[in-house]
Amino acid sequence: MSASILKRLPLEMFWPTFDPFLFCAFHNDKYPEANAEMGPAAPLVGRALGQDFAGLDGWRMYHGKKIPGFPAHPHRGFETVTIVNEGLVDHADSMGASGRYGEGDTQWMTAGEGVQHSEMFPLLNEKGPNPLELFQIWLNLPSKNKMVPPHFTMLWNEDTPVVKKSDTKGNETTIKVVAGPLSGITPAPCPPNSWAADDNNHVAIWLIDLPEGAEWNLPAGASGLSRTLYFFEGENVELDGTKGLINEAFILKSDADVTLKNSGKKARFLMLQGRPIAEHVEQHGPFVMNTRAELQQAFNDYQRTQFGGWPWSRHDQVHDKSKGRFAKYSEEQES
Fold it and tell me: Is the keyword Iron in the record (predicted)?
């Protein structure tokens, strides 16, 4: 195995992550045509509604019972980064903010001191399939920022830079830069209290598409970082001469470059990188703190305040099917 690869691990539904990242889920659902209520026009008999993760017929309802997705639930002490490659997500939260995003957009939400939100997947096409592909990544917050006010930022697809690199044969690799500079290109700012907001933490989130026959050199980063490359689509790739297997994670030496070669159909990768926060983590479900006492306080606070309550008429809140992509922030600023 190449010296640039420290370890390799299989990918299951929840991918292995390393400090400062807490969690990474890849949702790839082939939803059928929609019904009039923005749910699947298909029988739901035989599904564990409210807890449907089985992947029957290639799609899941997750915690939704009529519309797939994740109805209202709380978070405290970390951030969610949701990258939607295909399909749509409807956002609503306890701050009164809302949005519909997808088709390449990213939502970056700082839970901080506590927020409730829902993430539903409205199906809008009543005449054909409704594919959904997204990543949800949990990025930890350092102790000093655990209790900052909640906040979310939209990184719209059209504002997210894509770096294109051609090899000697003219094959063009594309790298979508959600976070972390590449080749002099810097993406839009993330939320101000994020671990990624400090350049010294070298947080990078890149989506890499390597066409058939292409070769690309993943440049070295700083030393001492967590750097993981997830190979989630494709056939025959090599990393510095080491054959890569589909659905595999490669933990890389962060200060070494790695040559990626693809001899099969288009290969796709997600790369997560960052300087470890290196603080003790206590986690229970949607709360991530530093001590057991803080974790218990999170539960107590949520039971007492509901993190601001739920201002929406339904816990699986979806927006009017005629609306396009939008974001309405709690300050009533809409874009």
Answer: yes
